[in-house]
Amino acid sequence: MSDIAKKDNGNLIEYLVKSGTGLDLPKPFERDIYLFDTYVAGTSHIHGIKEIGDKLKEEDRLVFYREPENEHDPQAIRIETLNKEKIGYVPRQDNVVFSRLMDAGKVLFAKIIEKEMRGDWLRIKIKIYLHES
């Protein structure tokens, strides 16, 4: 047995969890399940999208938030960066099943596949995943 294991006595994990270090320990059987390829809709309506897009990289994780009160689409799913910058929505034609999964308590997110600025429109292709824990 290593010296670290002998000296730890199981307190390291307890310390990291209780100290609020932000360490997110993996849970048994936790996994991300790939579901679908699509794009981010509505980027041309986002103020400062070029500056936001300049910071985005392939494989960046994007966060999904349901907007059931959205006046244009009750199945709307807002997409934000990890820095809480809104970049658009899951396209309406793709969001019905995903919104139902989220309404049932499932956690969905996306990863950027590629991005390209086309005038005022930032085209962002994404892969959607279901986080299962």
Brief digest:
This protein has 133 residues and is of the alpha+beta class. The protein is built from 4 helices and 6 strands, in the order ααβαβββαββ.
Account of the 3D structure:
The chain has 133 residues and is an alpha+beta fold. Helices cover 23% and strands 36% of the residues. It is built from 4 helices and 6 strands, in the order H-H-E-H-E-E-E-H-E-E. The longest helix has 9 residues. It starts with a helix and ends with a strand.
Keywords:
36% strand; 4 helices; six-stranded antiparallel β-sheet; 133 residues; alpha+beta; 6 strands
Strand segment tally: 6
DSSP helix fraction: 10-25%
pLDDT < 50 runs, ≥5 residues? none
Strand order of the largest sheet: 1-6-5-2-3-4
Task: Give the H and E element order.
Answer: HHEHEEEHEE
Number of separate helices: 4
Distance between the termini: 31 Å
Radius of gyration: 19 Å
Structural class: alpha+beta
How is the biggest beta sheet arranged? 6 strands, antiparallel
Tell me the overall shape.
globular
What percentage of the residues does DSSP assign to strands (E)?
35-45%
What is the average per-residue confidence, as pLDDT, rounded to a whole number?
88
